[in-house]
Amino acid sequence: MGSATDPFIYANFLSSLDGRIALEDRAQNIPSYIPKHITTVSDFKLFMELHAQADCLITHGGYMRALSEKRLGNILQVKSNELIEWRRNHGLKPQPAVIIASANLDFPIHPSLHTHQQDCFIATGENADAERIRYWQDKNFKILRAGEEKMVQGAALIQQLKKLKYKSIYLIAGPRMLDTMIREKQLSRLYLTMTHQLIGGLDFRTLLTGPRLADEGNMKLKSLYYEQGSPTGSGQFFMNFDLH
To answer: Is domain 8-242 in CATH 3.30.70.360, yes or no?
Structure first.
């Protein structure tokens, strides 16, 4: 879907009808989570099929911490033997490389990355803490400098990944990474599942985190599929949009 000089960068999100991609309870110090009743088998199947087409995943330090604390499940590997075989038949390694974006560089490495022999890089900004950088370098992790300050920036990260010859890059990070990729015109396609449910909630997360967008936020609908009766009692749209 892409090339080493022009990689295909894509993201996939699940949203309620009122725009929630996750809920949290700040008063009770409960971190963000996806309500179970808006998820479906077909939505997760789409996630894994998109996962299987990537030679590189971009995640973030927050996910690695949540994974270590067992607050979230492990989505760093392709699980299905059928999809692993599909990867082999299409010239991909059995498992994708993983890029961990982090400003503070404070997260654990999940043992499954070593078990599955996945290439793993850590991306951070130019002004990241030097001591933390040395910590990871001493553990033989390659550091990708991809931002002017401490935060990772979309365009700078994709330039680094081009040097590594990655062609199909899947964002499994959150709104902040999506925001910088769209704002810096790096995202190729957005897959969006919208469940036909209103879930409310005072503390919630939506697709983007930054200030108002201009033309870089314009999207073109490429396809729309309606699944009736799933989730139970409602339904959902599967949509994909091209950005450039």
So the answer is: no
